[in-house]
Design goal:
The protein is α+β, with helices and mostly antiparallel strands and 150 residues long. The chain folds into two domains: 32 residues; 115 residues, Beta Barrel (OB fold (Dihydrolipoamide Acetyltransferase, E2P)). The chain is built from three helices and eight strands, in the order αβαββββββαβ. A five-stranded mixed beta barrel has the order 2-4-5-7-6. Strand 1, helix 2 and strand 2 form a beta-alpha-beta unit.
């Protein structure tokens, strides 16, 4: 084999290895990407069923129900236009309250109940996650908010 052919073979092997590495990185990125949806978008079947995403809005007043003897909590997230029931097992943030902003990450079950694995609450009176604020504003206008990735 000539030196020129050997160099060409090494270049092809290097390009193939680079292609495999790029494919693996893109696949990992895609599998860990979590999208945000408003309750209106979830009700409109825009959210993926069985795949993790975030839902945000306000905790509906009077909707928090705690199971006795366990850490399971059920509540409703609303954007003032549509409501989505949420169930979460674990400790909630201290700032989690009815009528306040919340973002929950988890999956939507086939029964329409969002099963949260993580719940985040706003940290002061002036803050609401930008995606949740935009979703609530769009719901007030009668439209639907854009899906944002985070």
């Amino acid at each position: 084999m000539k030196a020129r052919h050997r160099r060409f073979a090494w270049i092809l092997v290097g390009l193939a290895a680079l292609g495999v590495a790029v494919a693996l990185v893109l696949n990992a990125f895609r599998s860990h990407l979590v999208f945000f949806f408003s309750p209106s978008q979830v009700i409109a079947n825009e959210a993926p069923v069985g795949r993790p995403f975030r839902i945000g809005g306000l905790v509906q007043v009077g909707s928090i129900v705690r199971d006795t003897g366990s850490l399971t909590v059920r509540f409703v997230v609303t954007d003032t236009a549509k409501d989505v029931p949420v169930t979460y097992t674990g400790l909630l943030p201290d700032l989690f309250k009815e009528g306040k902003g919340v973002v929950a990450q988890g999956t939507l079950g086939p029964d329409g109940v969002f099963r949260a694995t993580e719940v985040l609450a706003k940290h002061d009176e002036n803050y609401m996650p930008p995606e949740a604020a935009a979703a609530i504003e769009q719901a007030h206008k009668g439209g639907q908010a854009k899906t944002l990735s985070r």
